[in-house]
Amino acid sequence: MGGHSDEILHLTLNIWRQSGADDPGEFETHTIDASPSMSFLEMLDVVNENLQEDGREAVAFDHDCREGICGMCSLVINGKPHGPESETTTCQLHMRSFSDGDVIWIEPFRAKAFPVLRDLIIDRSPLDRIIQAGGFVSINTGAPQDANAIPIAKENADLAMDAAACIGCGACVAACPNAAAMLFTAAKVSQLALLPQGEPEREGRVIGMVEQMETEGFGHCTNHYDCMAACPKGISTDNIARMNREYLRASVLSR
Amino acid sequence: MHALRRFLDTSVGRKTVLAITGMSLFGFVVVHLLGNFTLFSGTEALNEYADKLEALGPVLIVAEVGLLVLFVVHMGLALSLNRQSREARPEGYRLRANMGNSTTASRSMLITGLVLGVFLVIHIADFRIKKIMGNPDVADLGQAVVDRITSPIGLVIYLGGIIALGLHLRHALQSAFQTFGLSHPRWTQNVRCASVAIATLITLGFLSIPLYLLFIGQGAAS
């Protein structure tokens, strides 16, 4: 942790700049004076204000809620997706995690399935298509039923909730040496596989989602568990074992 | 057939077959090590064991062809999965930090696997092929093994193979459980510990043979 709030951090930033998918891209170096109380994205906001004052193009980066729940922010900061703090999204990372004089390298999440659109913004729609391939429960809408109409074991409810904490940011893909999307897909399979509501479409779901994951060009799982270390929501790789189990079961049982 | 093809079209399916073949090969390694232990009773004991295996006739041929298929499938799948993953990140990071969860063993699976493949080719060419061709060099198989292991070049090749095997197994055994979906908070940690322990035991088991031959039983063995 850095020092007092009146301290100023003099930082050197190496930021990835890339005008589009076809541009090879390169690092651009900036210096900035930042307050330890700033969030990482607020620090980048200041970088952009300075750039715009100089009449230069602002650095493009993804963000939305800035509360750590939407999954829009990304960035690989000093070689780690979402930066050095564990279970922390980039928007919830504060500059007090850095020290005066630090050099910070900022790169986009890198995977063939996540092409860079501009600077630090990547296209994460492959994750949406994995959800579309089965990560849902088909139900008739209407009046909600009584909350306790379907009994669910407390432990299963908790595990499903833990899996459902995935915000779909793609840090697991970014951290994986193989650029695999196993943790994301496993969390989305698990949150429904653990609940009775997921039962009717159980086999089709996991097969559809795993096959879509392959189609999108992600890598394979070598059980390093770096994804779990990078996940801002602490999603466990136990979910990957569950998905493997579900997939094997479905491969035998599906018609 | 369509269902099997669909299964093998996914990395999850191919990893399952990779794990099944890997576990089968692990079984073979254990049996092979137990066979090697006959050297503790002298080269004659190993020759007797080899003769008994030869006496199995067609059963041995089926077993050997089966092993060859296991090796080829295991290596072929590993290379195809590795290619998929290399293609999945055509542009790497300029700076990459260690996330802390991977191990030397997990990161070096391809390398240790390739080393084992090379070791296997040398090993089979030097013993099995020569034996089948009736090469007098391996007529006394037990003595041939002792000569190889106690020669500097042979020892280096042997140690290289053992180290690669130990590292490979250290990650592989527990990884196979994860791939099969066999995971539970109550015993997964035990599986991981057992995986390291078994890999270490196998390594020490193979190591014990040159240590015995070089420092204890050279006279007894030769």
Q: Can you give a write-up of this model?
A:
The complex is a heterodimer of chains A (255) and B (222). Chain A is α+β, with helices and mostly antiparallel strands and 255 residues long. Chain A folds into 2 domains: 9-117, Ubiquitin-like (UB roll) (Roll), CATH 3.10.20.30; 124-137 and 151-253, Alpha-helical ferredoxin (Fumarate Reductase Iron-sulfur Protein, Chain B, domain 2), CATH 1.10.1060. Helix content of chain A is 33%, strand content 13%. The mean pLDDT of chain A is 95. Chain B is built from 10 helices and no strands. Chain B has helices at residues 2-8, 11-36, 43-54, 58-88, 104-107, 109-133, 141-150, 152-179, 188-216, 218-221. Chain B starts with a helix and ends with a helix. The relative contact order of chain B is 0.12.
User: Which CATH top level class of chain B fits?
Assistant: Mainly Alpha
Main beta sheet of chain B, described?
none
> Strands across the major sheet of chain A, in which order?
2-1-5-3-4
**Strand content of the residues of chain A, in percent?**
5-15%
First-last Cα distance of chain A: 56 Å
Helix content of chain A: 25-40%
Annotate the secondary structure layout.
The complex is a heterodimer of chains A (255) and B (222).
Chain A: E1 9-17, E2 26-34, H1 40-53, E3 76-77, E4 80-81, E5 103-107, E6 116-118, E7 121-122, H2 125-132, H3 154-164, H4 171-175, H5 182-193, H6 202-215, H7 226-230, H8 238-253
Parallel strand pairs in A: 1-5
Antiparallel strand pairs in A: 1-2, 3-4, 3-5, 6-7
Helix pairs in contact in A: 2-6, 3-5, 5-6, 5-8, 6-8
Chain B: H1 2-8, H2 11-36, H3 43-54, H4 58-88, H5 104-107, H6 109-133, H7 141-150, H8 152-179, H9 188-216, H10 218-221
Helix pairs in contact in B: 2-4, 2-8, 3-7, 4-6, 6-8, 7-8, 8-9
